[in-house]
Write a structure and sequence with these properties.
EC 3.2.1.78, single chain, MAN-like, alpha/beta, about 35% helix, TIM Barrel, mannan endo-1,4-beta-mannosidase, Glyco_hydro_5, 15 strands, about 450 residues, hydrolase, 3-stranded antiparallel sheet
């Protein structure tokens, strides 16, 4: 672990607030600054933005987007985390994917999807919002890193366990096989030059794109707060720890350096969950081109929360783990003098009694545990805020469904709720009528 004095100050110098850059969110030490003021993030994940923003097609719904943004703004949300990446397959239609995709094949783009992203970004200033824009995804619901490996090797992706929308159960393959396959994106020297070349080309296309609505290049657009390398890049501990460390750091440093060479305005973050301890946090954030730290917290996925327990036992345990996690991530980010954001947190609706099993995904299911957990996140963010000398600049809940609702019958159609296609619709969704939950989120901005 590098001390404060040893850490390169590139991010502090490059993103120090100035009159010329005040419209852009910038970082100085552990502070985020916007328009000369401390910027505290109250965020929402809205991965659907690009497709919902399309003017036409099966996913386009601009009326919904405007209403969703109006509601979020009313509850103090000032940052939206979105995707600027979805990849198609050379092997035909794939299960549980976002369609239509932005990039059907390497270097080929669907202009209508891109214009959906243009339109969405153009709306944000109307609501005093910024965007964190992810340039890739570790998971297959958008194609992601595994699709780059599939392109490079012309092989089928070994999909992990995913939601079967017709049987309405989780089914599928081997999680470890999926990790091993997908990690080849940045760990297989035989294909790294090819996968990274395609990825860097995508980065250049996005960053240099001229928005067809505003006429502004993305790299010059203050509506964008940060570029994110990948949603949740994962690590596999190898027998030779140094090899795995070097491979991951090589990719992070190479990618962040490239983004910085194209764009001097925006923050750069990794998209990491930061769940594997201090060593891996340092590996993922020590590049001098990374200017914003990232972490996620998922109590159910990580085995802390028992969704079928009607008592407060496991939700209280999860809250204890949350405070421990945030405390550690705050210290690690302070050591590197980086601001930190909890870019994802979520919890499903109550899953017992009348709403046991699949009924827990219904918008009618109560949210007693979720609201208790969300309240703890807000309290935690305030306690560890950079206002109080700590590193956290805010958080973003997963995920906003707004006025949409899950289908009433089993279907293979993408529903565009807050839950990606590989998960049951309604699992972690927050709806426009979840007013108690939204009032809790509002406390982040007060």
């Amino acid at each position: 672990m590098l001390s404060n004095k040893q850490h390169p100050v590139h991010h502090i110098l490059q993103h120090r607030p100035s009159s010329a850059k005040s419209a852009f969110v910038s970082a100085t030490g552990v502070d985020l600054v916007h328009n000369g003021l401390l910027y505290i993030i109250s965020g929402a994940n809205y991965w659907q933005a690009m497709n919902l923003g399309m003017a036409e097609g099966p996913s386009g719904n601009r009326t919904r987007v405007i209403r969703d943004l109006e509601i979020l703004a009313g509850y103090g949300v000032n940052m939206i985390r979105i995707l600027a990446a979805s990849e198609g397959s050379q092997l035909g239609t794939q299960p549980d994917r976002m369609y239509p995709e932005l990039m059907p094949s390497p270097g080929e783009y669907n202009e209508k999807v891109f214009q959906g992203l243009d339109w969405f970004l153009a709306q944000l200033p109307k609501y005093n919002m910024t965007a964190t824009v992810s340039l890739c995804n570790y998971w297959t619901w958008s194609g992601g890193a595994a699709q780059y490996v599939s392109w490079a090797t012309n092989t089928d992706i070994p999909y992990p366990v995913q939601w079967d929308p017709l049987k309405q159960i989780f089914t599928g393959g081997d999680y470890n096989k999926y990790l091993e396959y997908t990690n080849r994106f940045y760990a297989d020297d035989e294909i790294y030059k090819k996968t990274q070349g395609w990825y860097r080309n995508h980065i250049e296309v996005v960053i240099n794109r001229v928005n067809t609505v505003t006429g502004i290049k993305y790299k010059n657009d203050p509506a964008i707060m940060a570029w994110e390398l990948m949603n949740e890049p994962q690590v596999i501990e190898t027998k030779n720890k140094k090899t795995g460390e070097n491979q991951l750091f090589r990719w992070i440093d190479d990618t962040a350096r490239y983004i910085s060479s194209l764009d001097s305005h925006h923050l750069i973050t990794t998209g990491a969950e930061s769940k594997n301890g201090e060593r891996w946090f340092s590996i993922m954030h020590r590049s001098s081109y990374i200017t914003l730290a990232s972490c996620h917290f998922w109590p159910l996925n990580w085995g802390y929360y028992n969704s079928t327990d009607p008592t407060d036992s496991s939700v209280d345990y999860s809250i204890g783990k949350l405070y421990e996690f945030i405390d550690l991530n705050s210290k690690w980010a302070q050591n590197l003098q980086l601001p930190n954001v909890l870019f994802e947190y979520g919890m499903m609706r109550d899953n017992w009694g009348e709403f046991s099993g699949i009924k827990a995904y219904s918008p009618r299911a109560p949210v007693s545990h979720r609201n208790k957990f969300y309240s703890a996140v807000v309290d935690c963010m305030k306690q560890f805020s950079n206002k109080n000398g700590r590193s956290f600049a805010g958080s973003a809940f997963w995920a906003y469904s707004g006025i949409s609702r899950p289908p009433s019958i089993p279907t293979t159609n993408i529903t565009w709720t807050g839950d990606p296609p590989h998960e049951p619709p309604g699992w972690n969704s927050v709806y426009d009528n979840d007013t108690d939950t939204l009032e809790i989120i509002k406390k982040l901005s007060t």
